């Protein structure tokens, strides 16, 4: 089980801020494929990975990173603070 | 050194008045204030953030700045939640012996805050709501450090 | 736009609190404060200036900054006369739509103030009084503009 | 007649902040030669021109500049404001 968090328009497209996901995905990319296969709203949110960023346990990471030991995955668009 | 992430407003003048002075170590203080512009018919803004990661990201950015420049003081304040035109969004301040370090550290903090701290701005205007898009410029700004 | 040359102290916090905000045009405010450092056993400082030329030189530097960047506000305050460690010597502030212009204009003002405005600092320490020497760095800093 | 002003250590070496000078010097450099010939304290103040700057009517200038029409000449070391 892994906590998956969504922010900004990713959260809006998927329709929820966080969920617990049962997965055997070895990498972020595999997790994304599983999510996209679920429902259109996921497929839509993850349709263009260049527009997305991922954090693993609250550290910026990338889509090829392994999920082993990770408790929290977050997906969001490029940040616009400051 | 102080880092604050908060929904509440802050008083830029009061923060500037008590920052980095008084210990005789600083010869140069630089402050930056980011404001919600009233242009383009925007009526309000909302800032979303990632509690937990935000604090870690800001602490990391501040540590990186302190490793790179000798700073006698450093301050970051960043708000989240609803904001109106003219409101203060965030500020940074740096204090150092000389102006070059204070300026560079403040710009470094701003460049990394823009692209590496998990905040997202949504603007509400006459044509509806829109998430602010990151600019290629902002990512490119990191290359100089 | 405001330029002040004065012997009297100024309140950096109060100046920051009322600068560049309120009209909704600025998205970015940068301020710089120069302080007398208490290091090196210096007990006091005196700043001499050239009345008449000082005001002209500061007005020219400010005009040059405004011609180069689109600024919604600009402030320069520079003191002269006796100063003690920890005292504020001078400040500049710039307001613009985006942070790049506000930072660049503030650094431009500082670089030109250092080497082109007729102020001279004399430091009084345990070994007597000494006129501060201009640094080659300060002259070189002008090359980037 | 021309007003000649001195600042910082130039003022201290010469021993006065300003004076009116009767001169036919055509350039700043010629005026400096006239002043150096007066007394040791002038010769000392003007001994290293690289350490000096000059302003004509409150605008930075250089030692080869003509004095025609100029009312105020100021000599001082490189500035150290900010």
From TrEMBL, chains A, D:
Statement: the UniProt record of this protein carries the keyword tRNA-binding: no
Pfam family, one: ThiS
Record keywords, A-Z: Nucleotide-binding
Claim: Nucleus is one of the keywords in the record: no
Family statement drawn from the similarity comment of this UniProt entry: Belongs to the MoaD family.
Record's protein name: Molybdopterin synthase sulfur carrier subunit
Organism of provenance: Albidovulum marisflavi
The gene coding this protein: moaD
UniProtKB/TrEMBL annotation, chains B, C:
Keyword Ubl conjugation: no
Matches recorded under InterPro entries: MoaE_sf (IPR036563), Mopterin_biosynth_MoaE (IPR003448)
Keywords of the record: Molybdenum cofactor biosynthesis
Pathway per the UniProt entry: Cofactor biosynthesis; molybdopterin biosynthesis
SUPFAM superfamilies linked to this entry: Molybdopterin synthase subunit MoaE (SSF54690)
UniProt superkingdom: Bacteria
One Pfam family matching this protein: MoaE
Reaction catalyzed: 2 [molybdopterin-synthase sulfur-carrier protein]-C-terminal-Gly-aminoethanethioate + cyclic pyranopterin phosphate + H2O = molybdopterin + 2 [molybdopterin-synthase sulfur-carrier protein]-C-terminal Gly-Gly + 2 H(+)
CDD domains assigned to the protein according to its UniProt record, in alphabetical order: MoaE (cd00756)
Keyword Transcription: no
Enzyme Commission identifier(s): 2.8.1.12
UniProt record similarity statement: Belongs to the MoaE family.
Purpose: Converts molybdopterin precursor Z into molybdopterin. This requires the incorporation of two sulfur atoms into precursor Z to generate a dithiolene group. The sulfur is provided by MoaD.
Quaternary structure, from the entry: Heterotetramer of 2 MoaD subunits and 2 MoaE subunits. Also stable as homodimer. The enzyme changes between these two forms during catalysis.
Protein name, as recorded: Molybdopterin synthase catalytic subunit
């Amino acid at each position: 089980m892994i906590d998956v968090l969504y922010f900004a328009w990713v959260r809006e497209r998927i329709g929820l801020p966080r969920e617990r996901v049962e997965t055997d995905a070895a990498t972020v990319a595999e997790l994304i494929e599983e999510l996209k296969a679920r429902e259109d709203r996921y497929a839509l949110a993850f349709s263009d990975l260049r527009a997305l960023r991922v954090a693993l346990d609250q550290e910026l990471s990338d889509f090829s990173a392994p999920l082993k030991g990770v408790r929290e995955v977050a997906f969001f668009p490029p940040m616009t603070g400051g | 050194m102080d880092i604050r992430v908060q929904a509440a407003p802050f008083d830029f003048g009061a923060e500037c008045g008590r920052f980095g002075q008084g210990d005789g170590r600083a010869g140069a203080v630089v402050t930056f204030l980011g404001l919600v512009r009233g242009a383009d018919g925007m009526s309000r803004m909302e800032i979303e953030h990632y509690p937990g990661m935000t604090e870690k990201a800001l602490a990391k950015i501040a540590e990186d700045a302190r490793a790179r420049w000798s700073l006698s003081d450093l301050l970051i304040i960043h708000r989240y939640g609803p904001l109106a035109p003219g409101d203060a969004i965030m500020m940074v301040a740096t204090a150092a012996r000389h102006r070059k370090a204070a300026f560079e550290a403040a710009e470094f903090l701003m460049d990394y805050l823009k692209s590496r701290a998990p905040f997202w701005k949504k603007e509400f205007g006459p044509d509806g709501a829109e998430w602010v898009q990151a600019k290629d410029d902002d990512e490119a700004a990191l290359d100089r450090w």
